[in-house]
Amino acid sequence: MKAAIMGFGTIGSGVYTVLTTNEDIIAKRVGEKIELKYILDLREFPGEPWEKLVVNDYKTIAEDPEVDIVVETMGGVEPAYTFVKAMLEAGKHVTTSNKALVADKGADLIKTARENNVNFLFEASVGGGIPIIRPILECLTGDVIEEISGIVNGTTNYIMTKMTMDGSDFADVLKEAQDLGYAEKDPTADIEGHDAQRKIAILTSLICGQQVEYTDIPTEGISQITADDIKYANAVNRRIKLLATSTATGNTYIARVAPYLLDPKHPLYSVDDVFNAIFVHGNMLGDGMFYGSGAGSLPTASAVVGDIVEMARHKDENIPLEWKEEKLELADPSGVECRFFVRVKSSKDDVKKAFGDVEFVEGIVEGEIGFMTNVMSEADYDSKASSLDVVKMIRVK
Amino acid sequence: MKAAIMGFGTIGSGVYTVLTTNEDIIAKRVGEKIELKYILDLREFPGEPWEKLVVNDYKTIAEDPEVDIVVETMGGVEPAYTFVKAMLEAGKHVTTSNKALVADKGADLIKTARENNVNFLFEASVGGGIPIIRPILECLTGDVIEEISGIVNGTTNYIMTKMTMDGSDFADVLKEAQDLGYAEKDPTADIEGHDAQRKIAILTSLICGQQVEYTDIPTEGISQITADDIKYANAVNRRIKLLATSTATGNTYIARVAPYLLDPKHPLYSVDDVFNAIFVHGNMLGDGMFYGSGAGSLPTASAVVGDIVEMARHKDENIPLEWKEEKLELADPSGVECRFFVRVKSSKDDVKKAFGDVEFVEGIVEGEIGFMTNVMSEADYDSKASSLDVVKMIRVK
To answer: For an interface test with A, which of B11, B18, B130, B143 has the most A Cβ atoms less than 10 Å from its Cβ?
Structure first.
């Protein structure tokens, strides 16, 4: 069986490493050898062992009937979409690690794959090496998934962990993360939550079987979280994590990306550093969690190669996967109920007038107090908080 | 599609609840309704809604060509084995939650299923509701699994958690667990590690594709763990958990069930109460963990129903699953290297003579000292410790 990799960056080269390092065991699991025939890249790689595999035109791959399986690790929506679509239409299976492509064109490419009796898989697009998409589609099939919430961005989790452990400021930790290669030079997509937003859109689409537009999901990042917020979190024995979360309500979901205060009893509380984890609550299963390396060359490539094996085992067959193009209207996020932690420059009396009897955290920042509300809807919170001088509000999970 | 449940105890009745509660979403996922036609039990259940489904002879099910899928939730090797074998030979798919049956007869029943072009699945036999078997077989297929270690027994994890949190003695917590229904009247299989031993045998068999005999796996339970051991664990900032662990070495594995001291950085450290979790280390993936409810009626039934959906989707097809009857010779466990925590009634000088420069924990129990060795093989430890008056040794992960 012959394969091609489109895009030989961090993940694409990781796929090469996995396929060569574990060649024998993969061949045993598939029943035949997976031979890499092409690498699509604009660079030449002179002297490298894969030099002779490099081609510059995707049509060379699309038009070669020997190629059964194509890996897309280029990133971004275009030209990845054009290339992937062409491969599927040429009767080739495709796996991708590209969450931007999947969030935007997932339904379309799944349909194209079905029409051509091949598969379009994307295990690596959420949670890197963590198996989460296939477990949702093929294991948790006896359950109504009532909630899925994840720490799905390693960069922000590293930053939040360092801020929590060292008490450092956001800007300092971001710089350190950039120096270590954990954060990109332009870190916007990570720290403002855009990456997590696409990932929770994908997970929610898979659970409901319809298109969830990531642009419909209210998203806040962690760039506004300060060392003072961490001190308040410590004072109430909680940790701040950037969560991407989706909760069932009626026939739809409420989704959000935002920093949350987590209780030590929550399974996501202990997920530190660059690790990712996805928490699932099923109406029969109860709580479950999938934990591991959410990024990085080899872990992500491990998930891509898992898809390759799955497609090789289903070479002549489309594995049914429901994700209709029809758009799901998400519910109004102001309806979701939770507790809120609030920092205010108001008097205790004013807070009590608005929120009733609450416990206060004092002495962290001069001239302000902190408190945690009871469980209420966000609309209710907004209305009650409008009379106060709010410095910061963080939701509590 | 018609199904039958053999054994209507805790799990069997849970399967009934899952199938009826989530009937519509399961039908949507399968593409047709799963109708429960028979319940095999020796009891009659007068007045219950399922009363008319009850039959007393398994042949009624085996001989009914309308039944496609059979659930085995009786427990124990016999008569479960005879019944399951008959169902597979009659061309029916079977799923089971019965670890005793799978550990003992897994290879045989997988072969029987293949010969009859049906499936024998057992996701619920390890980790209850946690998806672990299908993720190993269908997701982590690009990796060499170098280690799999789990907290796979809820009863013992509950006991260890309570002993750690409250400082209570083993006997008191066991009694409390029995009163709460978390431990059975005869708790031997749980507290002596026999349950965990079967589960790690199953996981190791799946990873290596051969029969691993659970009786070959050295097994210690938690009945010898005392409140003093917990104090020592606290003193070295670790927690004691009963682990079932398997590590690759050469072409085989070293497996063991025993209490281990876990570091706070280990993903299994935070797995408390009756929860289970399975840690996996792949040569490409790195660390991963699967967490959730490892027992209980509905979580376990959720996994059984996941198998039902999988089998219904592959009604006319055997899903390849490699688990040969040929036995794998496990490696000598004294070869595995780790650190050891040791309580001795010997002098510091004698300890230093045997183990070199170590840090001591004093003042926990009069007349003894504790210390942690460097990393060494168990054979090496045994030889060095032979000169000391050892009160207790606990391995460190």
So the answer is: B143
